[in-house]
Design a protein that fits this description.
By secondary structure, this protein is α+β, with helices and mostly antiparallel strands. It has helices spanning 19-29, 71-86, 128-144, 163-183, 190-213, 216-219, 224-227, 260-274, 279-292, 297-308, 311-317, 324-327, 330-353; strands at residues 36-45, 50-57, 60-67, 95-96, 105-107, 110-116, 229-230, 239-242, 245-248, 255-256, 357-358, 361-362.
């Protein structure tokens, strides 16, 4: 039976997993040399068809994952996790092999795997010191993933050459935002979106022009394995303090990319959590990353360009494309007002730090 996404009814627990998937999971566990005493669901992705359980075994606690992506895509991430643990001795949970020496089981059209559960993990503090710890660990992760070669049957997950297309997509979808807001003009958030979409689209166009004039075309000539992997979902939940330092978990979405994309996401998200941009935080976060994985002047320029994109507006407003009648509410209008206010604090900071980096060292 093929595993497919499932719906969650309001009266059903969010941790619900269909019985047929649980049955497949139990069959999968029989392929491991483990005695399982207890199984506890930890998180689910019902809209994608994925789940994570914590299992208590005779060899200690483990995580048991049903990966929602295509099997060949999941082979890429599992190969990466095995590489950074076995070859680079990174602080990443080791994968447990099956009885026949494999790092996964394919069942129901998906890949399943078991890894050690690191009991001691605790989130770092949500302050500047914690942000610096996250950035250093991120740089270390990027450096340790260099040299990875995917398994033979895995698809090659790479975003290195997609930056221009992503910028173009952002610019195009601003037109879609405008059109939908006009079609649903009676909705509370529509007028707010129409009043600001032009300025954000112009920001995206200017960033795209800067990208085309940058060293991006030269940087992408390096082999993918020289860049290493980006995590794509890095933050306070997926990097935590444990035994001997920071551990990085949930590598399911890793991909080849120019690594400062992860750093850009972390900085942007952190500034959103602060409700303002802060030059000292941005500088210290970049400096901490640089200590673990040196940033060249060309990479710093690319980071500044990516930070100049209207990332928060695009990330939050693109949801309107799916169900505009449920999205264009008063709450959304208030959210956009907050994004606009946040954006106003961004430009003085970017202007202040723009020329900090000369030759890959802080000037």
């Amino acid at each position: 039976m093929q595993i497919v996404p499932w719906e969650i009814e309001e009266e059903v627990d969010d941790f619900f997993v269909p019985d047929y998937i649980v049955d497949i999971g139990l069959e999968v566990l029989n392929q491991y040399d483990l005695h399982v005493h207890q199984i506890e669901i930890v998180t689910t992705k019902p809209d994608k068809g994925g789940a994570i359980w914590k299992i208590e075994t005779n060899q200690g606690p483990m995580s048991f994952k049903l990966l929602h992506r295509r099997p060949t895509r999941s082979m890429f991430s599992l190969g990466a996790q095995e590489y950074v643990v076995d070859v680079k001795q990174a602080r990443v949970p080791p994968i447990i092999q099956t009885k026949d020496g494999k790092n996964f089981v394919e069942a129901g059209g998906k890949l399943w795997f078991v890894a050690k559960w690191i009991e001691s993990l605790q989130p770092v503090t949500k302050d500047l010191e914690g942000a610096k710890q996250l950035c250093f660990a991120l740089g270390e992760f990027h450096r340790l993933t260099q040299g990875y070669v995917p398994p033979e049957k895995a698809e090659n997950a790479s975003r290195i050459h997609k930056w221009p297309r992503n910028y173009e997509k952002t610019i195009l979808k601003m037109d879609w935002f405008r059109t939908i807001a006009t079609l649903y003009s009676e909705m509370p958030a529509s007028s707010t979106i129409i009043s600001v979409v032009d300025q954000f689209q112009e920001q995206a166009k200017e960033s795209y022009e800067r990208l085309k004039q940058s060293s991006y075309s030269e940087l992408i000539q390096y082999q993918e394995k020289e860049w290493g992997l980006v995590h794509q979902d890095y933050g306070w939940s997926n990097a935590q303090m444990g035994e001997n330092g920071m551990w990085i978990i949930d590598l399911d979405g890793v991909s080849f990319d120019i690594p400062i994309r992860d750093l850009r996401k972390l900085i942007t998200g952190t500034m959103a959590d602060l409700f303002r941009w802060d030059a000292n935080w941005v500088r210290e976060m970049i400096k901490s990353y640089h200590e673990a994985n040196p940033i060249s002047a060309a990479l710093y320029d690319l980071l500044m360009i990516d930070l100049s994109m209207p990332n928060e507006f695009y990330k939050n407003v693109k949801e309107m494309l799916y169900e505009p009648e449920f999205f264009l509410t008063e709450e959304t209008s208030s959210m956009i007002d907050m994004i606009v206010a946040l954006d106003e604090t961004k430009w003085p900071v970017l202007n202040e730090v723009q020329n900090d980096w000369k030759g890959g060292v802080e000037s």
